[in-house]
Amino acid sequence: MSKDLDSLLSELKTVHEDLKPIPTELIVVADWVRLKCRYGCRAYGKHLCCPPYSPTPQEMRAVLSAYRQAVLARFETKPDQKLLPKHIHHAFWNSLTKVHKTVYELERTAFLAGYYKAFGMAALPCTLCETCVIEEMLKKDQAVFDLDAVKCRHKEIMRPSMEACGIDVFKTLQNAGYKPKVLGDCREKVELFCLVLLD
Question: Are residues 115 and 2 in contact, defined by beta-carbon separation less than 8 angstroms?
Fold first, then answer.
């Protein structure tokens, strides 16, 4: 039997304090979101948590229809480096690794509390490996279309990012009462958000 939501939140806060429960009806999925990945992100196609390997917006809508509750996790961070690299997620490498591990722990904690459908979603590309197996295969000119041949080294921890699945993170955060803004310079303090679907 699963714990009530208040008890679960108390338990989840032992993993990460900055959490906000939301009904899934506040989560917005839009087809245009993945265009930002495909045309604008240098990590596109180079990480298993990113498009084209992540669930599509259509799949995400179907998944969300099976959930009523979720929790947003907020992380504050600054870039690890003064000179920002070409890949923006490299500037937040250590923070993103912590984010991915924390999302996994939140999902696991909810699962063990009886929320057997719990599923976590991270932010930005995965940083659990120095180089994703997809990128290694691309460098060797190996075909990466057969996903059964792709073996993630951290399959138990790696989760797709919200945006990779078509979630409009800005609108979702606004719906949840946050005030997200576009940063002109990512040397500023950055807020990263993750999501754990419950029920």
Answer: yes
> pLDDT tens for residues 115-133?
999 999 998 877 777 777 7
Residue reference for tokens 């990779």? 164
Q: In whole angstroms, give the CA distance from residue 135 to residue 186.
A: 25
- Give the model's pLDDT for residue 185: 66
**How far is it, in rounded angstroms, from Cα 51 to Cα 162?**
11
Instruction: Give the separation between CA 99 and CA 81, rounded to whole angstroms.
Output: 18
**What is the DSSP code (8-state) at residue 5?**
H
Residue (of 84, 137, 127) closest to 103 by Cα position: 127
Round to whole Å and give the CA distance between 13 and 23.
18
Q: Which helix (H) or strand (E) holds 192?
A: strand 190-197
Structure token pair of residue 194: 């993750």
Q: Which tokens go with 193?
A: 């958000």
Q: Which residue has the higher pLDDT, 67 or 43?
A: 67
Q: What b/e readout covers 120-133, taking b as 16+ CB neighbours within 10 angstroms?
A: bbbbbbbbbbeebb
Closest CA to 103 of 84, 90, 122: 122
Question: Residue 184 is which amino acid?
Answer: G
Cβ atoms of residues 120 and 194 within 8 Å: yes
Please identify which residue in the block is written with the tokens 């063990």: 112
67: left (phi over 0), alpha (psi -120 to 50) or beta: beta
